[in-house]
Amino acid sequence: MSREESAERLVGAAPDSEDTAVEAALRPRSLGEFIGQERVREQLDLVLRAARARGGTADHVLLSGAPGLGKTTLAMIVAAEMGAPIRITSGPAVQHAGDLASILSSLQEGEVLFLDEIHRMARPAEEMLYMAMEDYRVDVIVGKGPGATAIPLELPHFTLVGATTRAGLLPPPLRDRFGFTGHMEYYGSAELERVIHRSAALLDVSVDTAGAAEIAGRSRGTPRIANRLLRRVRDYAQVRADGTITAAVAARALEVYEVDERGLDRLDRAVLGALLKLFGGGPVGLSTLAVAVGEERETVEEVAEPFLVREGLLARTPRGRVATPAAWHHLGLRPPEGPSAQGGLFDT
């Protein structure tokens, strides 16, 4: 499974083409409609209200957290609350200082610039952004060598909203230029149920309380996954049931799509199964584990492991990956008696 293919998993947090189209219809338009992230919503509401009262632009905003938690939605809400247009781009698309200068020079007064995956922006562009965020100007270099000249270009006041899944990769000078930083947390089941009921109403899908709870419990704490599972369960309910999503219908539908009661899919169970059945629960090295499941090392480490660790099913140790008692119980297997006979045999 390549990284592109892993992004298309039903329980993958990365958006697919259908998500992009549907999210536009399901996306909240204001902070009042936004579900969850109460602390971030309250803090951001204060920032925006104060900016409107002063009649100026809002401070630059940095949103961090896992994919699918609503960073893009909040960026659009910032623009809507400020009554300003929004320009959307991403770090990988800004690979030269000239790319960023072109974007910044075309901004309007008060406009919101949303820079997704800001940690992947090229270093020359990143250094240009420092001055743009703080002094609202950039120096455009004309010519080369000793005859090069820096021409200062004044910029309109704008609000930068940066989104990142890896805040630790941002250099301190860039982080320090954001006036507000919000960290997005995973959602609880009750919040996801509210998300599902709201989305079901917008999609004209009938879902009862138990059905929403069944989907929420398998959504890995992520609204994007909850909405994706809802659409797949809707398809099943329309084709093989009476169109109403109940707990039983949701369970049968997600069994078809190989998403179990804790949100694990085929890849997750393959990793756990290999760790338990082939290596006695570990410790085992990441490369060995990846070979055992027929996947790339990066796929196991970046796609499967984070959720398994967060669920307490797998632990990373200096000697390798180790299954927890919860992993044995989840797969219905009995752990070996006494210390693992393998010890450090598979630490490669």
Key terms for this structure?
348 residues; alpha/beta; Rossmann fold; Helicase, Ruva Protein, domain 3; Arc Repressor Mutant, subunit A; 3 domains; five-stranded parallel β-sheet; 15 helices; 11 strands; globular; disordered N terminus; disordered C terminus
Provide a quick synopsis of the model:
The protein is α/β, with parallel strands linked by helices and 348 residues long. The chain has 15 helices and eleven strands.
Helix and strand topology:
Layout: H1 3-7, H2 17-26, H3 38-54, E1 61-64, H4 71-82, E2 86-90, H5 97-105, E3 112-116, H6 123-135, E4 137-142, E5 149-154, E6 159-164, H7 172-175, E7 180-183, H8 189-203, E8 206-207, H9 209-216, H10 223-240, E9 244-245, H11 247-256, H12 266-278, H13 286-293, H14 297-310, E10 314-317, E11 320-323, H15 325-330
Parallel strand pairs: 1-6, 1-7, 2-3, 3-6, 8-9
Antiparallel strand pairs: 4-5, 10-11
Structure explained in plain terms:
By secondary structure, this protein is α/β, with parallel strands linked by helices. It folds into three domains: 37-183, Rossmann fold; 189-256, Helicase, Ruva Protein, domain 3 (Orthogonal Bundle), CATH 1.10.8.60; 266-330, Winged helix-like DNA-binding domain superfamily/Winged helix DNA-binding domain (Arc Repressor Mutant, subunit A, Orthogonal Bundle). Helices cover 47% and strands 14% of the residues. It contains 15 helices and eleven strands. The strands form four sheets. A five-stranded parallel sheet has the order 2-3-6-1-7, covered by helices on one side. Strands 4-5 form a two-stranded antiparallel sheet. Helix 5 (97-105) links the parallel strand 2 (86-90) and strand 3. Helix 5 (97-105) packs parallel to helix 6 (123-135) and helix 12 (266-278) crosses helix 13. The chain is globular, with a radius of gyration of 23 Å. It starts with a helix and ends in an 18-residue tail after the last helix. Residues 1-7 and 340-348 have low confidence and may be disordered. Residues 57-188 form the AAA+ ATPase domain. Residues 261-348 are annotated as: Head domain (RuvB-H). DNA binds at residues 297, 316, 321. Residues 7-187 are annotated as: Large ATPase domain (RuvB-L). Pfam families: AAA_lid_4, RuvB_N, WHD_RuvB.
